[in-house]
Amino acid sequence: MPFVPVPKDLTRVKTKVAFNLTKRQLVCFGAGGLVGIPTYLFSRASLGDETAALLMIGLMLPFFFFGIYEKDGQPLEKILKHFVYAQFLTPKERPYQTNNLYAALMRQAEYDKEVSKIEKPKAAQAEKEAGSRQTPVSKGEKGVAQYHPSDAR
To answer: Quick one: pLDDT at residue 6?
Structure first.
């Protein structure tokens, strides 16, 4: 009985479109052919066959690399983008900075103390003002204190 190996990680399995090539490989190889073959045909009369063939190979090689090369699941253009970003676009010296949670908690405690110092006098002042604005409560029937909303003005 024949055995067929089945990969455990199905995310790495690529669907083949034609000639056992993926769509990406077909597009890249087609673009390479569109660039390389006319170059060879138009330059072999003036440069000679060998030189024209080497020029054609040199022009088609990047397209083949973009179609085939893949590292850690990333195609070549992503790898080149990360390389250019790391080498040329970011600063060379990156100082090490920690996110000190204890220092953040200490700063927050200081802010809370400062806020409470500011709020205590204001709260006392507000209570003092509210106490002076209270209207006297009138006694109603049977000596029970009654409050009417119009007294608050």
So the answer is: 78
